[in-house]
Amino acid sequence: MPKIDFKGISKTFGTNTVIRRFNATVEDGEFLVLLGPSGCGKSTLLRMIAGLAEISGGEMLFDGKLANDWTPKQRGVAFVFQSYALYPHMTVRSNIAFPLVMDHFRKWHHIPIVNTIHRWQVMKRPEVKAAVDKMAEQLELTPLLDRRPGSLSGGQRQRVALARSLVRDPSLYLLDEPLSNLDAKLRTQMRSEITTLHQKVKKTFVYVTHDQVEAMTMATRIVVMNGGTIQQIGTPDEIYDEPANTFVAKFVGAPPMNLLPVQLNGKDLTAGEGITWTHSGQKPVGETKAIFGIRPEKLELRPEKAGRLPARVAVIERLGAETIMGCRLGLADAGDSISTEDLVFVRMPGHPGLSHGDACSLDYADEDACWFDKPTGQRIASRHDDTRVAAIA
Amino acid sequence: MTSPLLFRGRLLPRLVPYAFVAVPLAYMTLFVFGPLIQQVWMSFTDTRLMNPTAGDYIGLENYQDLFSDSQFYTSLNITIVYTILTVVIGVLVGTISAVALDRPFKGRAILRTVMLFGWAVPSVAATLVWLWIFNGQSGVASDITEALGLGRVPWLTSVDWALTSIMFVTIWQVAPFVMLVMMAALQSVPEEVREAARIDGADALNVFRNVTLPCIMPTMQVVALLVAVWSIRRFEVIYLLTGGGPIGSTSTLVVQLRLTAFEDFELGLASAYGVVGLILALLVASIHFLVERRRALVMLK
C-alpha cells in the first residue's frame, strides 16, 4: 500500500495557477479528505494523483518513488467519479469486470475478432466470475448484474462505480465528490457505506468534497484548501476546534463560526456598533484590533440583560432536536433587513420559546473564544499555548 | 346566447398545433408525396414523354419489361456496389478524420477548413474540376501516375476504372460531411468515461473501442443511412463524369432512369426504375430503424 508524498506540487493552465506548492503526505491506510469550495484545485489534485492530469511542477512520490510520469494503470489506483462514469452500453456485470478484462489484455488482442473472443473468454474465467459476483453481493448489486446503467437509479449507479473500482483490489482509492449527485437521504446512507468500506478494506482513501459534513464524518484527516493553497491539515476535531484562519473557521461548521471584528481595550472588547463587554479570558497581547471567533454551540442564549452581549432575535431555524438562532447584536431594531451577514448564530438544544424581534442576551465561557489577526485572518494562537495570547490578570 | 365555440378560446389553442403541422404537410404533399404517388401510378401506365398526361393503365407490363432487361440487373448491381462502397469507405474516412481532428493541436482549424472543402464547394462545380483532373490527355491524375511510372490511366473512359473514379469523387464529397457530423458526435462523448477507462487500464485504442465508438455509433449509423440514400439517388456526379458509360459500366438506376425517360421517352418504364430505387432506399431506412429500435431496447434493459 502506497504512502504518497507531495513535494511542492503545482499545476498551471496557461497563465492560470490552480495549485501552488502543495506539500503534504498521505499516510498508508488513512481516509484523507480534500475539502474546499468549488474551484479551489482539490479535484485537480486528485486527478494528478490518478495520473489523469499532468503535474506542472514539484514531485509526487509513491512509496518514495518518483511517480510524476506514471500512467494511471502503473499507479494502481481506483477512481470514483462524480458522474459515476459508467460504460453506458455495457451491462453492470461487464462494467464491473472491465478492469479485469483490461488486466488480461495483450497488444495482439487488438485484432478485431480476437478482441471479442478474448473478452468473452476472460468474462467466463471462474476467478473473474467469482470476483464480480463477490463484489456484486457485497454492494447488493446481484439482481442488477444484467441491467444497463441507463435503467439504474443514482444510488445503484454509484454502487456499480464503487464495485468497478473495488474489483481490482487497488491499494489507493480516489473519490471525486461521489455523493454530490445523490439526494440527501441516499447521501447519508452512502456516506456510512463508504466509511464502512474503508474500515473493512483498510486501504488508503483520498476523498474530494466541498461538503464539510462529509469531511467531518468520514475523514481521519482533512486538508482544507482554498485558491490552490492548503489552509490547514488536521484531524476533524483539530479543524473544527482550532481553525488555522478565518477561512477555515467560516468554511467548516454549519452554521459557521461567529467572527466579530473587535477593538481591544484592556479587558473590554468593543464590536461594531458600540457594543462593549468584558472578556476576562485570554486575548491577543499588544493588539488593539483583532477578530473574535466563537462557535455557535459555545454561545449561550439568555434572557435580556442576563448575558454580556445584548441582542435581538432575527432568525429562528427549528431542526427538531435543536434550534439555530440568528441574533443581531445590540438592541436596535434592524427594520426590514433580511441580510444574515451581520448575524451571530447560536445553536442550542430544544426550543428557547423566543420569537422574531424579541430582545435577549448572549454569553459564553471565556476559554471558548478563538482569536484571529485582523489584517491576515490567521489564528493568533491555539487557545491554550501561545505567548501572543495571554490572560489579562 | 353563447358565442361560437371557436371564439370562446377553447378550440383555437387546440387548433394551433395543427396549423403549424399543416404548413410543412402541405409542402410535402405538393412537392414530395404527390409526385411520388404519381410516379408509382405512372409505373403502371404506358405514358410516353410525347404525351405525358395521357397514359393508359397496363398493369405490371413495365415491371415485366424491366425484369427481363439485362441492363436493369447491371444497373441494380452497379447501384448496390456503388452504395455499399461509398458508405463504407466514406463513413470510415470521415470518422477517422474526425477522430484525428478531435484533439486540439497546432493548425487544427486550418486543416479542418481544408478538409471540409469537398463538402462546401457546389457539387457540379467540384465535379467539373474533377472532370479536368481525370482528363485522359491533360489531366493531373494521369500526370501523377505517369510520374510514378504507372503510365497514363484512362480514368473515366475505361470500363475497369470509371466506377472507381466516380466512387473516389463521391467519397471526396461525402467524407467531409461525415467528418463534420462525427466531430459533433465526438464532442458528446463524456470525458469522465474515457478517463475511467484509462484508470481501468485501457490503452488509447481500447478507450476508443470501448468508450468512444459505442457512444458515436448511433450517429455513425444515421450518417451511414444518409450517405446510403444519397448514393442510391446520386445523379450529377455520375452524369457529369461519365454519363453512365463507358458501355453502361457506371449506369446506376438513376442514370438509367434519365436515359429511359428522356432519350427513350418511356416515362412509364422510367417510373418503374424509380420505384425500384425507392424500394431500395426504403429497405436501407428500415434496416436502420430496426437496428436503432433493437439498440434502444437493449440499452433500456
Give structural notes.
The complex is a heterodimer of chains A (393) and B (301). With 393 residues, chain A is α+β, with helices and mostly antiparallel strands. Chain A folds into two domains: 4-246, Rossmann fold; 256-391, OB fold (Dihydrolipoamide Acetyltransferase, E2P) (Beta Barrel), CATH 2.40.50.140. Helices cover 26% and strands 33% of the residues of chain A. The relative contact order of chain A is 0.11. Chain B is mostly helical. Chain B has one domain: Orthogonal Bundle (MetI-like fold), CATH 1.10.3720. Helices cover 72% and strands 0% of the residues of chain B. Chain B is built from 13 helices and no strands. In chain B, helix 1 (11-42) packs across helix 13 (267-300) and helix 8 crosses helix 10 (204-233). The model of chain B has no long low-confidence stretch (mean pLDDT 90). Classes of the chains: A alpha+beta (393), B mainly alpha (301). The interface between A and B is medium-sized, with 31 and 22 residues. Chain B: Pfam families: BPD_transp_1. Chain B: Keywords: Cell membrane, Membrane, Sugar transport, Transmembrane, Transmembrane helix, Transport. Chain B: The chain crosses the membrane at residues 15-37, 80-101, 113-133, 161-186, 207-232, 267-291. Chain B: This is Multiple sugar transport system permease protein. Chain B: Belongs to the binding-protein-dependent transport system permease family. Chain A: Belongs to the ABC transporter superfamily.
